[in-house]
Structure formats: C-alpha cells, structure tokens
C-alpha cells in the first residue's frame, strides 16, 4: 500500500477501509492508575467534561475518580497521509476494547485543542519518535486521555478479569468492545459511544478454503481460541499487549508452551495457505530435530471451523534475532557455530524440496543456549536480502544465505 510505514515489524499492518495508511503502532502507551492526572466527577456517557483550556494545551481535566479506572493503553493507532483522522484501539486489562476515531472536522471553535491535535498527528505521520522534544508517547498519552471518561464508565476497574485462571485468546481476540467518537466545541471535549458496532478494523481471523482444511487435522493439532491460555509477565499487560507466549493442552495432563503467530490484519488467506503448506512439507518430510536441524516447529493452529486465527509454534527461549551488531559482539567460535547451524538446516530443507523464502538475519533466532534457529516460512522476501525475481527459489535462498554468512565472517 502506497505511503504506508510500519513501526514494529513483528506484525503485519492493519487493513482499513480508508486509503493511504501511514502508520500503525503496536504500542505500549500506558495510562491509568500508574499515571498522575486530575480527578473529579464523571458526568455521563454523552455529556461534556468540565473545564476549558486556557493556556494549557492538555485535554481538559477528566472528571473521574481514580478508583474507577482500570489499567489501559493505546494498543494500536493509525493515521493517514491524506486524511486528517486518527484511529485508536484502546484496550483495558479487564478485557474491554475501545475503537476510537478522532476527526478534526468535529472540532468547533476550539483552536487550542485543534492545534494540539495536529501536533500529535504530525508526529505520528512522520514516523519519528520525537520532534522538538515532543515524543510519540506524549502524543499517544494526549490522545488516550480524550477518551478517559468512557473508559471509566464502560470498563470500570470493578470488572476485573479473574486472577484464578489465565486469560484466553478468545478474550483477547473477541473482547467486549465499544465504538467511540469525539466532538469538541469551545475547547470542551465530548467523547461518546456510537450506536454502530462496525468498527472498521479487520477481523481477527481469516477464512480459508477446503483445500487448506481438508487434511489439516492429520498433520497439525487444532485448538479453539478459548482453549489457548495467554502467559503475561505483568498484570497491567493482561489483555492489552498482543499475545505471544501461550499454553495449550499437550495430552497426558501436560501443557505445551507455544509462540502464537497471528493471522488476520493484512495477512490474507493466500499468505496463510502458503506458509501452512510449507510447514506441512516440513512435518511430512520428518526433518530431524536439533541438533541435526534447527528449524522452528509448528505445534498446531488456532481455529473455529474454517476461520483461522493463527499458528502455534513450539516455544524457543530466545536472546533475540541475528544481526550484524550481535555477530560483531560474538566470538569467532560462536559465529562459526551459527554458520554451521544455519547452513546445515537450510541444506536439509532443500534436500526435501522446501524453500525457506524470506531469508534474512531477522529470520534467525538466537536462543538462550546460543543456537541459531531458522524461522518464518511465509514465502515473502525482503528487499536487500533477496532479489524479487529470485524470491521463492533455491537461488533466492542461496543469495540470502550468502548475505547472512557474510555478517558472520
């Protein structure tokens, strides 16, 4: 999509009905009980908040008792090159989501708030982390506070998620949600809940055809999202941060720890099919486990009927991905070890007629024991690593491998 820039490369960009998306931040912009802000009374769902701006460009003081607020953050945001709207998804740690749209066309006689909004918009559009000592976190915090009254009213802290059991993927992917808008008049904010349930963001699942599903259960386990437990290290992250580390039933009263790689967003059915078919080849080829081959292993898929939410890979405790900086800081013996592991693993794939595809240093994980693992069989390619005309071929894999080995010299 023209003019699009993604900040965190771990996830694909979100499709949206409007054209010319610029940015999506899979952010961690926190508000709530950990932050200091003014308190008072909440007037209600579609009522004005008290206080006007004078010389302070911050949003008017939210009239909210602190005890009513859960922890909440801007989980995603997106802005556009040509349009002046800003879209946010605010998530709370008690399982609510707020799909919010801010449009300056609904700002009336409010020059100070309008000026501050465009200051935020310009920074987010730029893709920079900071401009004139104004940071991305400052922009997200300011935008987040605009909807604070609705968060307090519709997702009060009394609606806590059970601390007895772990949250599930169902709770994250299919939260109780509200579609919200904002009106501003005379420097007074009026956030409100819309009547529509159409939030305009993409579905958390993709629909695949029978040619993908027909034998899926023969080579991969299927899990309902309600049976996948999410592991969070910090209570304030629950149902806010995107799930990565999860637990699933492995039989014999045991659990398997997995990495959840989500479909959906701009990851369409064609890409899902391509990666699943490659992973099927890996399973059917019976490529040996470490130390003979260091290749990520699919444990199962998350699905409801013909709707797929994502893939579950056997968890790898990692230090991070391979990079030139990591290679430069590593010993010659360790670099030699990684060269051997990567080359040998790719050779075993090729021997079975399997193409890696997106060959690059970022698709090599370094685990906690300093082993190098090949990951990502999505079939795309990255400019600068593999030429477009060689993508998805043995020649493309060889080209990318040569550049990885060059880093490890």
TrEMBL record:
Read off the InterPro entries from this record: Kinase-like_dom_sf (IPR011009), Prot_kinase_dom (IPR000719)
Q: Which residues form the Protein kinase domain?
A: 174-409
A GO molecular-function annotation:
protein kinase activity
Instruction: Give the domain of life.
Output: Eukaryota
Query: Under what name is this protein listed?
Result: Protein kinase domain-containing protein
């Amino acid at each position: 999509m023209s003019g699009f820039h993604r900040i965190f490369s771990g996830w694909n960009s979100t499709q949206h009905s409007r054209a010319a998306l610029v940015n999506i931040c899979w952010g961690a912009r926190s508000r709530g009980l950990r932050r200091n802000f003014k308190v008072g009374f909440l007037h209600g769902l579609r009522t004005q908040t008290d206080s006007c701006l004078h010389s302070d460009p911050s949003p008017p003081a939210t009239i909210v008792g602190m005890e009513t607020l859960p922890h909440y953050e801007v989980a995603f945001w997106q802005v556009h090159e040509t349009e002046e709207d800003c879209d946010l998804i605010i998530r709370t740690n008690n399982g609510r989501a707020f799909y919010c749209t801010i449009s300056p066309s609904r700002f009336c006689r409010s020059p100070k708030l309008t000026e501050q909004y465009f200051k935020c918009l310009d920074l987010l559009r730029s893709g920079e982390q900071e401009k004139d000592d104004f940071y991305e976190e400052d922009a997200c915090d300011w935008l987040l506070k605009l909807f604070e009254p609705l968060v307090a009213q519709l997702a009060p802290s009394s609606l806590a998620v059970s601390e007895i059991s772990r949250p599930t993927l169902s709770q994250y992917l299919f939260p109780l949600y509200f579609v919200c808008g904002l009106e501003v008049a005379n420097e007074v904010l009026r956030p409100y809940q819309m009547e529509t349930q159409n939030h305009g963001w993409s579905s958390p699942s993709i629909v695949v055809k029978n040619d993908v599903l027909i034998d899926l259960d023969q080579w991969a386990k299927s899990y309902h999202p309600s049976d996948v437990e999410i592991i969070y290290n910090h209570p304030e992250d629950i149902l806010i941060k995107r799930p990565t580390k999860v637990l699933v039933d492995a039989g014999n009263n045991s659990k398997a720890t997995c990495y959840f790689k989500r479909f959906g967003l701009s990851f369409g059915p064609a890409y899902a099919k391509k990666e699943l078919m490659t992973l099927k080849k890996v399973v059917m080829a019976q490529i040996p486990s470490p130390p003979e081959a260091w290749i990520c292993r699919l444990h199962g898929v998350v699905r409801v009927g013909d709707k797929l939410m994502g893939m579950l890979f056997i968890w790898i405790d990692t230090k991070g991905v391979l990079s030139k900086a990591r290679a430069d800081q590593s010993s010659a013996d360790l670099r030699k070890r990684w060269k051997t592991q990567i080359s040998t693993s790719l050779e075993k794939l090729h021997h079975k007629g399997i193409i890696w595809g997106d060959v690059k240093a970022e698709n090599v994980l370094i685990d906690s024991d300093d082993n190098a693992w090949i990951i990502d069989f999505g079939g795309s390619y990255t400019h600068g690593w593999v030429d477009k005309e060689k993508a998805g071929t043995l020649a493309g894999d060889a080209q990318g491998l040569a550049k990885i080995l060059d880093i490890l010299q």
